[in-house]
Amino acid sequence: MLNATLATQSDRQTLVHLSDYIAFGGEELVIIAGPCTVESRSQMETVATQLQRAPVQALRGGAFKPRTSPYSFQGLGVEGLEILSQVRSRHQIPVVTEVMSITQIELVAAHADMLQVGSRNMQNFDLLKALGEVDKPILLKRGLAATLEEFVMAAEYILSHGNSQVVLCERGIRSFDTYTRNVLDLGAVVALKQMTSLPVIVDPSHATGKRELIPALAKAAVAVGADGLIIECHPEPEKSVSDARQALSLDDMVQLVHSLHPIAAAVGRKIPASLTAVSA
Amino acid sequence: MLNATLATQSDRQTLVHLSDYIAFGGEELVIIAGPCTVESRSQMETVATQLQRAPVQALRGGAFKPRTSPYSFQGLGVEGLEILSQVRSRHQIPVVTEVMSITQIELVAAHADMLQVGSRNMQNFDLLKALGEVDKPILLKRGLAATLEEFVMAAEYILSHGNSQVVLCERGIRSFDTYTRNVLDLGAVVALKQMTSLPVIVDPSHATGKRELIPALAKAAVAVGADGLIIECHPEPEKSVSDARQALSLDDMVQLVHSLHPIAAAVGRKIPASLTAVSA
Amino acid sequence: MLNATLATQSDRQTLVHLSDYIAFGGEELVIIAGPCTVESRSQMETVATQLQRAPVQALRGGAFKPRTSPYSFQGLGVEGLEILSQVRSRHQIPVVTEVMSITQIELVAAHADMLQVGSRNMQNFDLLKALGEVDKPILLKRGLAATLEEFVMAAEYILSHGNSQVVLCERGIRSFDTYTRNVLDLGAVVALKQMTSLPVIVDPSHATGKRELIPALAKAAVAVGADGLIIECHPEPEKSVSDARQALSLDDMVQLVHSLHPIAAAVGRKIPASLTAVSA
Amino acid sequence: MLNATLATQSDRQTLVHLSDYIAFGGEELVIIAGPCTVESRSQMETVATQLQRAPVQALRGGAFKPRTSPYSFQGLGVEGLEILSQVRSRHQIPVVTEVMSITQIELVAAHADMLQVGSRNMQNFDLLKALGEVDKPILLKRGLAATLEEFVMAAEYILSHGNSQVVLCERGIRSFDTYTRNVLDLGAVVALKQMTSLPVIVDPSHATGKRELIPALAKAAVAVGADGLIIECHPEPEKSVSDARQALSLDDMVQLVHSLHPIAAAVGRKIPASLTAVSA
C-alpha cells in the first residue's frame, strides 16, 4: 500500500534543503543542536558562538513548548521566536523550532528555517495538511507509539498537500522499561529509508533522557545510516528549565561532533569540519 | 502533584451534563452508540430509530474523521454535521462527534451536544486550550500510549482554560499483541476515578476491534465502575465505510443494552429502561 | 492454525477438577486466595480459618518463590510445602502452589492439589512437557509479554504431553504506564475462551500491584466471564514479606467474595455461599 | 541497589573467555555466526568452511530449539550436538548452543564451548542457578520484555552461584510495531555496560526478523560499543527450517564482517582479519 505514496515514488533520495548550502539526504550529515527551550538572548548567543566550534549546521530551541501539564512553563512564545531570529541573522545559522498549531504557522515560518512537528502532534492531521502548504522544510518527529506505517502516512499528509520537503525524525518509542525515558529504535531508521525516499535523522536526547547515553547512540545513529542528528545541549545543563537531565554541555557537544567524523567516514558520509567548508 | 489540579479538587464526583436530563457521573449510566462515520441521512435515521428501542441516551457518528492515510475517506465533513443536526432535532437525542482542529470548533459546537477529542489529539494542547473556552461538554479519549498522568493532565488543559465539563474515555492502549487491536485497560477506569473527580466512560469497540469481544467487555466496564459506554454499531456492519469489523448490528446493540441492566444493578447503578424514564 | 490443537478440539468447555467437588469451567466460579508467600504455620492457619467465612474454595501460598534478585527471600521451600500440607489436611481445603523446575515437581505434587506455573516460566518448555505427565491440574499464568497465541501454545505443551487439566490465568501484561504494575487484559479472557476450551481465571493482584484497585477489577473479571479468581491476601498485609502493597486484609477478602455474588448472578454464574453448599 | 551485585563490583571490564585465544570484553570484538538450527552435518561443514573466510570467531547453531508450538520442529537434539562437536573439532572453532533445561546441561557442556540461555528462559531461575555451577561461559539473552534491572539480576543468579563468565546479549524487545519482529534496544547496550562489568553483545537477527535490516544494525551495534555480535546465516537462507526470513547468506555474512572493520576502528576496537591473527 505504501508504494503508491508520494513519499516512496521517487527513485532517488529526496534532498530537503535547510539553506542554500545545507541539505538533508546528501553525503553530508546535518547536525542540529541547541537547548530544549529558548530561555534568553544571552543563552542563545552563547550556544551559537560555542557550537560554531563544532560546527553544527543548525540551531534548535523551543519557543512554543508542548508540556504534559498546563501549569509547566510553556516557553517564551513570540519573544523566543524573536531571539531565534536575532541569533540566526547575527550568526548566519539556520534555526529549527516547533510549531504546535495552525495559528502559529505564519509566525513561526517568519522566524525559522525549518518547522518541527513534535511527537504529540504527529497525527494532528489538520496541522499536517496546513504545513503541506508552507514553503519551509518540515521536521516530523515520530509519535511515541507510532508504527512506521503511521509515521510515513503522517509525512504523506504533508507531501500530498504540496510540501515535499519533509525530514523524518526517530526520537525513541515508549516501552515497559523505565531505565531510559524511551527506547531509540534505530532499526526504524533503516526501515524508513527502505520504505520512503525521505531523509531520516535521529534525536538521541529525547530517546534516552540521560546524557551519558547520548554520545554512543549518536555514533550508532550515524553508523546505521541516519542523515543527521538533533541533540540537546545547554550552556549550563543543570540549570536548564526543562529536560535538564538529558542536555549535554556545549563542550561535550563540540566533542561529540568531532568524535563522529570517523564513524561517518566508515559509512561513506561526511561531517563538515567547518561551516566554511559546508558553504564552499 | 496531581492533587493540585482542578480535576481533583472537588470533593464530589463532577457531573457532566449532556442535556437537561442526562448527566455523566450520576447513578444512571450514559450509553452512547452509533456508527463510526456518518454516511447518509437514511443511515442515521435508521440508527436513531432503532436505538430508541434500547434505549441509548446519545448518538455518535463521525463527520470529520482522523485517518492514518490522507488517501482514506476523511468523512462527510459539514454535510455529516448537518445530518447529525437533523437527526438530533427530529429524534430529540443528543449527538457526540469529533472535532479535529481549532478552526472546526465553532461549526461542530453548532451541531453537536458534546465534542469529542480523539486519541491522536489527546496532547494537541492548543486544541485542548481552545476547548476550554467552549460551552459544551468534552469527551476526551485517552491517547494510544498515554500514561494516566498524561491523560489527567490533558483534561487539566481544558479545565484550566475554563471548561469543567470533561468526560474521560478509556479506549484501549497499544500493546505487543495483535489478536485484538488494542488492550482495554479497565484498571485505568478505577485508577482515574481515584485520581480525579471526572466521569470516566469506556469504548470497547476501538479497544478490541472485534465485535465478538464487545458485549463481555461492556459488562466488565459497567462492573468496574465506568460511568458510561460508547459503542459502535451500524445498520449493516459489513457495509460500514470504516471499522466494519468492530461494529455491532443495531439488534445486537439493543440486546447489549438490555443485558447490562443486571450488572449495573449489581454495582448500584442504573440504566434507563426508556428515555421517558430518563427524562421524567 | 490454533484450530488443530488439543486445547480447541473439544466442543464443550473443559472441566478442570481441583477436588471431587470443585471444578473450574462449570457454573460455579472458583475463588483461590491466600498470601503471596507461606511465612509460617500460624499465618496459614489464620488465613485458612478466616477465609472459610468467605468462603474461598482453595488456598494459595508460595513455597518456592521466583524473585528478580537472587538476594531476595526465595521462599521457605520444603518447609513451606509441609505447612501447606498440614493446613490442607486440617481444613479440608485444596492448595495451589508454584513449581519452578522439573526437579521440584514430585515434591510439590505430593503436597499440593494444583501446580502453578508462574509468568516467568510460561515458555519454560521442558517444565511444561514434564507437567504434561503429572496427574494434577496445572494453573498456567500468562507471561508478562506473551501473546494469546503463545499462551495457548504453552498450554498445548502440557496437553500434548498427556495432561488435559490446565487452567489459564490472565495476570496482567507489561505496558508503558507505571501507575499500575501491569495492565489487566480482560479482553484476553474473552478471547481465550473463544480460542480454547480451557477454563480461564484472573489474578487482579499481580495485575495491578495496588490493593485499592483489586475489588473493582475482580468484579469486572466475573462480569467478563472468567471462571474464577486468584487473589492475594494476608493477615497483616503491611507485614507481608513480599508484594505487601497488593495484599488485601482477610476481612477485605471475605467482603470481596460477598460482593461478587450479584455480579456472578448477573452473568449466569454462581459463587458458593458456603463450602458445604459446594460439596453438597 | 544494583551496586552491591557481583556483576558490578569489579572496577574493570570482565573478560569472558571462549577459548585460549578468544575473549569477550577486550579490544577485539567477537563475532558468532551460523544457522538458527543445526540441520545436517553437511550444512554445518559448509557454514564452518565458508565463515572461515570472514572470519568469525565462533559458530552458533541450535540443537534443542525452544518453539512456540509443541508441534513445530524441536531441533535435532543429541544428533545436533554431535554434529556441532564434529565441526568444532575439525575446524578448530568454538561453538555456542542453547541449553533449555537443567537436565541438558551436562550433555550440552560436553559438546559446546559456550552455553546459551534463550530469551524465554531468562528468568528460569533454577536453570540459571545450575549454570552458576558449570565451568563454561554462558551467553544470557535478554527476555522479550525484561527490564535492564531484571536482565542484570538474571545474570546475578549465575554469578552468585559461582560462574563469573557471563556475556549479556541484547536481542530486541517487544513493541507495538509489527514492521520488525522486535525493536533492537541499542541504548540498552550502553546502559548495561555502565551498570555492570559484563561484556554485552548484540543479536540483530532476532531483533529485526528481516535480513535487509541486519547489516546496518550490526554496524550500529559496533558503533554503540557492543563487545560482539551473534548473527544468523545459512547456506541457503530460503530453505532454513526456521527463521528463514532473517538468515543472511554465507556470502553476505562474510561481506558483513568485512564491512565492520572501519566502524570498529572508529571506536577503538578491532575485528581480526584472520583467525591466525586472533590466536597470534
Total helical segments of chain A: 10
Strand content of chain A: 5-15%
> How many strand segments of chain A?
11
Rounded mean pLDDT of chain A is: 93
Secondary structural class of chain A: alpha/beta
**How do the helices and strands follow one another from N- to C-terminus of chain A?**
EEEHEHEHEHEHEHEHHEEHH
What integer value in Å does the Rg of chain A equal? 17 Å
CATH topology of chain A: TIM Barrel
- Cross-sheet strand order for the largest sheet of chain A: 9-8-7-6-5-4-3-10-11
Could you describe the largest sheet of chain A, including whether it forms a barrel? 9 strands, parallel
Quickly give the CATH architecture of chain A.
Answer: Alpha-Beta Barrel
Task: Give a description of the structure.
Chains A, B, C, D: One of its GO terms (molecular function) is 3-deoxy-7-phosphoheptulonate synthase activity. Chains A, B, C, D: Its EC number is 2.5.1.54. Chains A, B, C, D: One of its GO terms (biological process) is aromatic amino acid family biosynthetic process. Chains A, B, C, D: It is an enzyme of class 2 (transferase). Four copies of one chain form a homotetramer. Chain A is an alpha/beta fold and 280 residues long. Chain A has one domain: Aldolase class I (TIM Barrel), CATH 3.20.20.70. Helices cover 35% and strands 15% of the residues of chain A. Chain A is built from ten helices and eleven strands. Chain A has helices spanning 41-51, 78-91, 105-111, 125-131, 148-159, 186-195, 204-208, 214-224, 250-266, 275-279; strands at 16-17, 23-24, 30-34, 58-60, 95-98, 114-117, 138-141, 166-170, 200-202, 228-234, 248-249. Chains in contact: A-B, A-C, A-D, B-C, B-D, C-D. Chain A binds chain D through residues 145, 147-149, 173, 175-180, 183-191, 194, 207-208, 212-213, 216-217, 219-225, 262-263, 265-267, and chain D through 145, 147-149, 173, 175-180, 183-191, 194, 207-208, 212-213, 216-217, 219-225, 262-263, 265-267.
